[in-house]
Specification:
16% strand; six-stranded antiparallel beta sheet; 7 helices; Aspartate Aminotransferase, domain 1; 6 strands; single chain; alpha+beta; YdhG-like; YdhG-like domain-containing protein; 196 residues
């Protein structure tokens, strides 16, 4: 996925949904939120806190509310795209320009802003144990350098690697992922360090 430096670049670089993204941007810029780019995508913040982002994929475009799990969602449009993993973030997927309802979007943004002002937040669960999948455990047993480096990583970084392997469905995918990450682990790098 390409990482853009400006919102204009992001919209221009989208293979589809450019007009729809421009319309969402226009609506969000009419609110009190500040526009920025985080993780290569448009992000709208209130007093430095991420509130909502916009994005586009092949079959839909949409909004991401970072604390969407707190929203009342009277229209029933918000979904958890990573059920069981994401507690706070919710997506609002759209598939046409006519689905964009400025008044409704602004109402959701207003509620999200008010929740932020009041200090409401779903915080990630900290301190849960790291479950290392058998494939990663076996690979680390064969590579002492990687094992030593893995043990020195923070629990969060260990969990990222463990989840990366565990989430792969096919054995071939697990094997190719292990081949990719073992040198990174041996160097003491986290899976997502390049995004930090």
């Amino acid at each position: 996925m390409k990482r853009f430096k400006t919102v204009d670049e992001f919209i221009a670089g989208s293979e589809s949904w450019q007009d729809e993204l421009k319309r969402l941007r226009e609506i969000l810029r009419s609110t009190e939120l500040d526009e920025t780019v985080k993780w290569g995508a448009p992000c709208y913040t209130y007093e430095g806190k991420n509130l909502v982002g916009i994005g586009a994929f092949q079959s839909y475009f949409g909004l991401w509310f970072f604390q969407g799990g707190l929203l009342s969602d009277p229209e029933g449009v918000l979904i958890n795209a990573q059920d069981g993993k994401t507690k706070a973030m919710r997506q609002w997927r759209l598939t046409s320009m006519k689905e964009i309802k400025p008044r409704t979007i602004k109402a959701y943004v207003k509620e999200a802003t008010q929740l932020q002002i009041e200090g409401h937040e779903i915080k990630p669960v900290r301190g849960k144990p790291v479950t290392i999948p058998p494939e990663l455990k076996a690979a680390l047993a064969r590579n002492k350098t990687a094992r030593t480096a893995f043990d020195q990583l923070t629990p969060g970084k260990q969990r990222e690697y463990a989840d990366y392997i565990a989430d792969a469905k096919r054995d071939t995918t697990k094997a190719s992922r292990l081949e990719k990450i073992l040198p990174m682990i041996a160097q003491g790098k986290g899976l997502n360090d390049k995004y930090r």
